[in-house]
């Protein structure tokens, strides 16, 4: 079998230019001179028999073939980095288990994982609160061993365990009329200004909210975005709008000026699912 033209170093050099947009900037990021980098790119294009870049007046842009290689190269380089981290971790079994978690995991999932680690007499874990996208990036780079995060996502090579679903309730300013209701329809929700998590923090959640709003015949009136539950509740307590909080959080977090009210007919459609994701050996520790 003929040797592949692709190798780790060439892919790094190719990605440096692809991300920087020029050989000059790519060479600066790699801390090398331009001529050897230009030669490496020519060697790569000649070996593959395709043009990877289109030379334009202000630099270089990827051709369709270049875009395809960039997508694959990014994944390959991340996997190599992760493999290096995992080999090092395997040679140092006493190293602490590195756990990433979203704030929703504070309601029980994180505690459950930590109790299992303690009961097994393992080294003290290292904890990092991170968003789901940040955890996926950290998992890919081998910077954390386990992530407690929200789907959906497309990630291969990792084991997953569902930690359950948590439906939402409405967080209503205590001095609003809605706060005195036993339950609310989603039409009631849509008829009020809302305080929500940022869409990029939970795109699937925002999609579910938008679908329910459409079915209720209303448009979302978003008064504010808040990335954390505590900040969302502080805004709700001020009377600016209605928030959406998971049911488990409503049972454990009392906030002055906020009343939690159930939402009718949404338990199977408006929820957060929490997954434990990570290396199979790491998942086995907390599963």
Total beta-strand segments: 11
Please identify the top-level CATH class of the largest domain: Alpha Beta
Output the CATH topology of the largest domain: D-Maltodextrin-Binding Protein, domain 2
Helical stretch tally: 11
Query: What would the average pLDDT be, to the nearest integer?
Result: 87
- Cα-atom Rg, whole angstroms? 24 Å
Distance between the termini: 43 Å
In terms of DSSP E residues, the strand content is 15-25%
The CATH homologous superfamily of the largest domain is named Periplasmic binding protein-like II
* Architecture (CATH level 2) name of the largest domain: 3-Layer(aba) Sandwich
Sheet with most strands: 9 strands, mixed
Number of domains: 3
- Ranges where pLDDT stays below 50 over 5 or more residues in a row are none
Please write the string of helix (H) and strand (E) elements. HHHEEHEHEHEEHEHEHEHEEH
Which descriptor suits the 3D outline?
globular
Kindly name the structural category. alpha/beta
Q: Which percent bin holds the helix content?
A: 40-55%
Salient structural properties:
287 residues, alpha/beta, Arc Repressor Mutant, subunit A, D-Maltodextrin-Binding Protein, domain 2, 3 domains, 9-stranded mixed beta sheet
């Amino acid at each position: 079998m003929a040797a592949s033209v692709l190798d780790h170093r060439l892919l790094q050099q190719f990605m440096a230019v692809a991300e920087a947009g020029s050989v000059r900037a790519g060479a600066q990021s790699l801390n090398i001179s331009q001529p050897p980098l230009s030669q490496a790119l020519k060697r790569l294009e000649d070996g593959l028999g395709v043009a990877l870049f289109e030379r334009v007046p202000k630099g270089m842009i990827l051709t369709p073939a270049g875009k395809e290689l960039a997508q694959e190269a990014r994944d390959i380089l991340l996997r190599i980095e992760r493999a290096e981290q995992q080999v090092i971790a395997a040679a140092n079994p006493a190293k602490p288990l590195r756990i990433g978690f979203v704030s929703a995991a504070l309601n029980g999932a994180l505690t459950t994982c930590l109790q299992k680690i303690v009961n097994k007499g393992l080294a003290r874990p290292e904890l990092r609160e991170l968003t789901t996208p940040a955890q996926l990036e950290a998992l890919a780079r081998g910077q954390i061993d386990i992530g407690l995060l929200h789907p959906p996502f497309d990630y291969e090579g990792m084991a997953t365990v569902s930690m359950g679903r948590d439906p939402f309730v409405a967080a209503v300013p205590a001095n609003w009329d809605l706060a005195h209701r036993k339950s609310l329809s989603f039409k009631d929700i849509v008829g009020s200004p809302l305080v929500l998590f940022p869409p990029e923090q939970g795109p699937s959640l925002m999609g579910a909210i938008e679908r329910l709003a459409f079915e209720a015949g209303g448009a979302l009136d978003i008064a504010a975005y808040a990335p954390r539950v505590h900040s969302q509740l502080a805004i709700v307590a001020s009377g600016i709008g209605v928030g959406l909080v998971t049911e488990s959080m409503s049972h454990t977090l009392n906030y002055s000026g906020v009343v939690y009210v159930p939402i009718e007919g949404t338990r199977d459609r408006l929820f957060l699912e929490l997954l434990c994701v990570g290396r199979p050996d790491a998942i086995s520790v907390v599963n």
